[in-house]
Design a protein that fits this description.
The structure holds two protein chains of two kinds.
Chain A (H helix, E strand, L loop, with lengths): L1 E7 L2 E7 L4 H18 L3 E8 L5 H15 L4 E5 L3 H9 L7 E2 L3 H9 L1
Parallel strand pairs in A: 2-3, 3-4, 4-5
Antiparallel strand pairs in A: 1-2
Helix pairs in contact in A: 1-2
Chain B lengths: L4 E8 L4 H13 L6 H22 L6 E9 L2 E8 L7 H5 L15 H8 L2 E7 L3 E9 L5
Antiparallel strand pairs in B: 1-2, 2-3, 3-5, 4-5
Helix pairs in contact in B: 1-2, 2-4
Classes of the chains: A alpha/beta, B alpha+beta.
Bound molecules: adenosine-5'-diphosphate and magnesium ion.
The site of adenosine-5'-diphosphate (ADP) has 22 residues of chain B, from helix 2 and helix 4.
Chain lengths: ~110, ~140
C-alpha cells in the first residue's frame, strides 16, 4: 500500500493509494501513526481520490486515527470520496466525526478553524 | 428453485484473499449486468462476510472459507461459510456498533453494511462448528 504525506501548516494530508480493507488496514494504520508520532499534526485530511474500494474495516481505521489526534482538539476530514464509499460512510455515521468536503480548499479552511 | 448458474470458491483464511474473493464474486455476478453501484454493494457485502470469517471465525488462525454463489433469474445468492468458533448471540452480533474485538479497531458495522447493501441477510451459526452467511440481492434490469 503506497501512501503520500503532505503538510499544510500543522494539518497532515494523507493520500491513500489503493483499496482499504482488513488486509491493507494494518499497513495504513502503522504508517499514519508513525507520521502522527513524528510531527504531532493538529488536523488530518484524508485524500481518497485513489481509493476505489473501502469496507467497514476502513471505517475503523479512519476513526482510530481521528481519535489519536482529537485528544488535543484535532479535527479530521475527507476529500475526493467516490460515491460508493460516501454511501458506506453515511451508513456508518462517519460524517458526524469525519466530514466529507467538496474541495481541498474548503476542507482546509473548515478544519483549520 | 433451480439455479441458472452456480460457482463455488474455497480458499485459506488469509487476509490477502479478501480482495481476491470479492473480485471473483463481482466477476461472476457481472453476468446479470448489474449497475456499477450494485456491483460495489455486492463487493462490499462479500468483503464484510469474508473478513468476519477470517478475523472472528478463525481468529486469524488458518482454516477454509467457502463461497457459493448462485444466479436465479435476476437474483444473486451468496453464501459465505467458515468452520470456526461460531456466534454465541446472533441478535447481539447484528447490532450496529457491536464488536467483540474493539482492540482491533473494528467498527462493529459489518452486518449493518451487509443488511443495507443486500436485500436479505441470514445468519446460521453453531458454537464450535462455524458460521454461514446467506445473502440475496435482486439486480435491477435496465433495458
Ligand atoms: N464468521 C463469524 N464467526 C464468529 N463470529 C462472528 C462472525 N461474523 C461476525 N461475528 C461476530 O459478530 C460481531 C459483529 O460483526 P460485524 O458487524 O462485522 O462487526 P466487526 O467485524 O467490526 O466486529 C463480531 O464482532 C463477532 O463477534
Ligand atoms: Mg465485520
Amino acid at each position: 500500500m503506497s501512501m503520500d504525506f503532505d503538510y499544510i501548516d500543522r494539518m497532515l494530508i494523507v493520500r491513500i493509494n489503493g483499496d482499504i480493507d482488513h488486509h491493507s488496514c494494518e499497513g495504513i494504520r502503522a504508517k499514519i501513526d508513525k507520521e502522527i508520532a513524528k510531527r504531532s499534526p493538529r488536523a488530518i485530511l484524508f485524500d481518497m481520490e485513489q481509493v476505489g474500494f473501502m469496507d467497514s474495516s476502513g471505517i475503523g481505521v479512519l476513526i482510530g486515527r481521528y481519535k489519536l489526534i482529537s485528544g488535543g482538539g484535532g479535527k479530521a476530514g475527507m476529500i475526493n470520496v467516490k460515491p460508493q464509499i460516501k454511501r458506506l460512510c453515511e451508513i456508518c455515521g462517519l460524517q458526524k466525526i469525519i466530514k466529507i468536503y467538496p474541495s481541498k480548499k474548503q476542507a482546509i479552511s473548515s478544519i483549520k478553524e | 428453485m433451480k439455479a441458472d448458474n452456480e460457482m463455488k470458491l474455497e480458499f485459506l483464511s488469509k487476509s490477502q484473499n479478501e480482495s481476491f474473493a470479492r473480485s471473483v464474486v463481482a466477476a461472476f455476478v457481472a453476468q446479470l449486468d448489474p449497475t456499477i453501484e450494485e456491483l460495489a454493494e455486492i463487493k462490499t457485502a462479500v468483503s464484510e462476510a469474508v473478513t468476519n470469517a477470517i478475523i472472528h471465525g478463525y481468529s486469524c488462525e488458518m482454516g477454509n472459507v467457502i463461497i457459493i454463489s448462485r444466479l436465479i433469474g435476476n437474483t444473486v445468492e451468496i453464501e459465505v461459510k467458515d468452520f470456526g468458533v461460531g456466534i454465541a448471540d446472533i441478535e447481539l452480533a447484528r447490532q450496529p456498533l457491536y464488536t467483540s474485538k474493539p482492540e482491533l479497531e473494528r467498527s462493529g458495522m459489518g452486518f449493518t453494511v451487509m443488511e443495507t447493501f443486500m436485500d436479505k441477510v441470514d445468519i446460521e451459526s453453531y458454537i464450535g462448528e462455524g458460521t454461514t452467511i446467506r445473502m440475496t440481492k435482486k439486480i435491477t434490469t435496465v433495458k
